[in-house]
Amino acid sequence: MKRKKQTLAILLIALAFIAIGCEEKEPEKEAFKLNIGDTYEGGKIAYIFQVGENRYVEGETHGLIAASNDQCTDIEWGCSGIYIGETSTELGKGYDNTCGIVQKCTERNAAYLCDTLCLNGFFDWFLPSLEELHLLYTNREAIGGFSDTVYWSSSESSINDQYAWIMNFYSKENDNKAKNTKCYVRAIRYF
User: Fold this and answer.
1) Can you give the three-state secondary structure of 123-168, one letter per residue?
2) Of 4, 91, 125, 178, which sits with the fewest C-beta atoms within 10 Å of its C-beta?
3) Under 8 Å between Cβ of 52 and 162
4) If pLDDT is split at 50, 70 and 90, which confidence band does 32 have?
């Protein structure tokens, strides 16, 4: 009887060691760090949202992706004389601006070009807001492919329905331009 207890004890200890050795461990996750200028999801990372900004999500990485090249070099903002209304210059508002422009204006304009763009398997491109366009300017070297010229934003002027906001990539100036002026377009998307 004593021998059976010893054998049972040894057997239980052996099983415990086997169970511990077979314990499945989760593989360590290697941190995947995204940087401005990295090729990612159809273009180049143009900006990573920071704490307190519109579209920031704690514990997740989100931001702007810019198309690697300009979509057009001579297109009008369009809708001259039509007040789109409710467009914003703020970060995180370019998509909403683009949707508003496309809904109220039937012209094949800068917003339409971005809204209908299929690039590298992605269909959710849009014309950047003025603040988003400014971030493209700030990170233009890392993104690449920009010209020293004027780019359209999706932000309509609040002063006059004949004008919309542009950013001059040569002088770094923001200004209102007549909507029938032909400028460059660089589409972006959120990730």
Assistant:
1) CCCECCCHHHHHHHHHCHHHHCCCCCCEEEEEEECCCCCCEEEEEE
2) 4
3) no
4) confident
- Rounded to two decimals, the pTM is 0.82
34 in any annotated domain: no
Contact 156, 87 (CB under 8 A): yes
Contact 66, 44 (CB under 8 A): yes
Which tokens sit at 154? 């999706």
Cα(133)–Cα(174) distance, rounded to whole angstroms? Answer: 10
CA distances from 55 to 62, 74, 84, 94, 132 (A): 8, 31, 23, 12, 12
At residue 166, what is the residue type? I
What pairs with residue 65 in β-bridges? 45, 189
Report how many domains make up the chain.
1
Q: Is residue 7 part of a domain?
A: no
The answer to whether residue 26 sits within a structural domain is no
| Strand, helix or coil for residue 63 | strand
Segments forming the whole domain that contains residue 176: 39-190
CA 56 vs. chain centroid, Å, equals 11
User: Confidence class of residue 14 from pLDDT cuts 50, 70 and 90?
Assistant: low
What region does 120 belong to: left with phi over 0, alpha with psi -120 to 50, or beta? left
